[in-house]
Design brief:
about 90 residues; mainly alpha; about 75% helix
Length: about 90
């Protein structure tokens, strides 16, 4: 038996987006029905995209390393702020 899902506004928006993309693809290809779209699309060898994918992965890894470095710096800054605040409050007394 199929599971039933509630039709929440977000689910409806997602369904509408998917259907809109199918219709746009159909119109762009000049077809009459969305089911004809796979017949008209041509396949491209993946070797042309390998370098692009590799570059994206390298950039992702670099961003990940930079994020880790920034997180460490943020922790140091937060610790310094905490110490300075405690020092200021201590001097007020």
């Amino acid at each position: 038996m199929a599971r039933r899902r509630k039709l929440t506004p977000s689910v409806l928006r997602k369904l509408i987006r998917e259907e809109r993309s199918r219709l746009n693809e159909t119109l762009e290809l000049g077809l009459k029905h969305p089911s004809e779209a796979p017949k008209r699309t041509r396949e491209v060898d993946a070797d042309k995209y390998a370098s692009t994918l590799e570059a994206c992965m390298d950039h992702y890894k670099a961003c990940k390393l930079k994020e880790a470095k920034l997180r460490r710096q943020l922790k140091k800054i937060q610790e310094t702020k905490r110490r300075l605040k405690a020092k200021m409050l201590k001097n007020l007394d």
